[in-house]
Structure formats: structure tokens, C-alpha cells
Amino acid sequence: MDWIVAPDSDGRALRDVFPSMLAAMGVESFTDTIGIPPCRNALVLLVDGLGHELLRAHEADAPFLSSLQHSPPLTAGFPTTTVTSIASLATGRCAGEHGLVGYTFAEPGGGLLHPLSWTVRDSPDGDRVSLMERWPPEQVQPHTTVLERAAAAGVDVRVAVPRHFEGTGLTEASLRGAKFRGVRELGDLAAELLDAAESPGPSLCYGYHAGVDLLGHVHGPGSIQWRMQLRQIDAFVQMVAERLPPGVVLSVVADHGMVDLDPAQMIDADSDPALQEGVRLLGGEVRVRQVYARPGARDDVLAAWQDAVGESGSVITGEQAIDEGYFGPVTDAVRPRIGDVLAVLRTTGVIRSVAEPGESKLRGHHGSLTSAEQLIPVLIAAGG
Question: PANTHER family, alphabetically (predicted)?
């Protein structure tokens, strides 16, 4: 389908950012496939939700970001969601290898893991319980991270992320190997980035900002609230970039883009019996649903979902998605986490008004394979 932008394999994906930065620093065993200027220290700032097309459409609100060296956009990977993207960035692998295959996905106990909280519901209407002991992050994502490899090579590796991320399942699964630097506000984040920049080196620091994504979800990308937040992050990046010492490179990237959808125009899986028949679990998120069928029911589930989604998206089997490379190489351990049926949406979304009341009311969404969600910027500022 011509609207689908599948993850690439030519070295210009989010998973290639850390290896490219480390190669630019001269660290052995890493390759620069993106084109990073040579440097002694490197900073990577991930602006959650700042898609390539959104930035291009709102250059007036981000004059500094828009003035930075532009390379062709990267691809985020699949699904285009924060959990998967951060794991891809930090491990240098696709979802089919690192195993964090979506916003929610099947876990061995028969429930849906919510990786942002590393919890599962103890019953359909029950409380969330932690899986940190029963399905620990190191088991879910067992591969050595790029950060661990860099630290072993003598790089001073740091992550400057919100303080409440410390010790979480996602942090332990993805960001192992780095010194944790918890931040509260943008001032903290700026100070941590600049402290790493001024290190004798070699030093790699990863920073994260969530505000653009949050306001995009709540008010919609392009809303006045979203635009004012974009202006703040533009000024923030300029402040940091103007203070970079010689020999330091800052790369600004994103984990996905975002689309604006009317909640009233969504398909509601919780109010349509046809979308519940034969379904054991319904994971993923509004823009890409992973449907886990009961034994023997996959083909009926596929037909029902294809009929409901129609021209609004693509509904395929999990095997087809794997064969077409959506998840990259898929290991035997990861295959059971991928849905039997995938609904990849183009013009609408599939909400769950009962099970996910908060998410169902949001304006901004991501997860699918449109260019608005898949393409992400890579913007370079160099000190000196």
C-alpha cells in the first residue's frame, strides 16, 4: 500500500543513532551510517513526538531547530511508539529482536504487559500488578545494549531523563549500562547535557523531553498548546547548542511523529461485538492494534477486523507483518508477543472506550506506518 512507510534497512533508522554517534567519537566496533561530524563527546536529545513532517509544517515555531543541519529523515521503526523506539535506540535493534513490540503486548502469563509501568492487570477489571519479578526486564530484553558496549569501551555514558524513570522496567530493559542522571525540569536537563559536553571525554549523554508528545496527545499536534511547547523546546535546544564546547556534537531526534484524530470518528472495539468474537487479548494502541486470537479463531478474527476497518487501514496476519519486515528479524522468543492479527490504521484509529477510557479521549496518536508517524528528524549542532 502506497501510504505505508515501512522501516528501512539502509542504516538510517533510529536504531542507528547511538552507533553513528559513537563511531563519530572514534570508538572502535561502531559504524557511522548517518553522517555525524567527528567529535570527542556526543549528546543525543530525543524530543518525544516531534515527527519530521510536524517540524517541517511548523518551522515558524521552531526557527532554531529548522536552521540546523538537515539530513534526510530517519525511520522510527515499528510500531511507532515510545516503548519500542527507545528500546530500538538503546539496543541498536529492531522490535523483533529486542522484544518490546508495542504499547501493550502479550506476556507469558496470559495477560498484556504495559511496558511503561511494567504491569499487567490481575483480571479484566482488576488492579495492575508489577511483573518486575515474574517477567523481569532483563529476560524480556536480554541483549547487550549499545550503552553497555560503549561503557565497556571506556566511554562515560549517561542518561538524563525524568527522575521517576529510575529503576523502571523500561529503563532496566533499554538503558542498561549508563549512569542515571534524574532530572526535574528543563534546567536540570540542560545542565546535565552541558556537564557531559564539558567532560574530558569520551562521553555520550542521552537526554529526553516528553512535553511535546504529552500536549500533542491531549490537545492535538499543531494545536496552540502544542505549538507553544514546541517554541519552548526550540529555545531550549538553542540555549544548549550555543554553549557547546569545540569538539562536541548534539543530535536532536524523535521517537515517532503524530497525527490528529477526532475521538468521535474512531472505531470502538469495546462496543462492536464483531471485533470481540474470537479475541483472547487486544493489545497495541489506537493506531496499531495487535489482536491475539483464541485457538482456531485467527481467520475469523482477521475477516471481522478487515470488514470493520475497510479502507481506513490495513489488517493483516502477524505472519504477514513479520514476512514483510515490519518488526525486522524476529526471534523465537519474541514471536509469541506479536499479535495473530494486526490492524495498522491510516485515517482513523481503534479505541477501547471501556478498557482504555483515557487513551480513547485523546486527540493525538501514533503507532502506525504513515509518513507522519514513521519519519523522524535528525538535526545536528556542533560546538565551536
Answer: BIS(5'-ADENOSYL)-TRIPHOSPHATASE, ECTONUCLEOTIDE PYROPHOSPHATASE/PHOSPHODIESTERASE
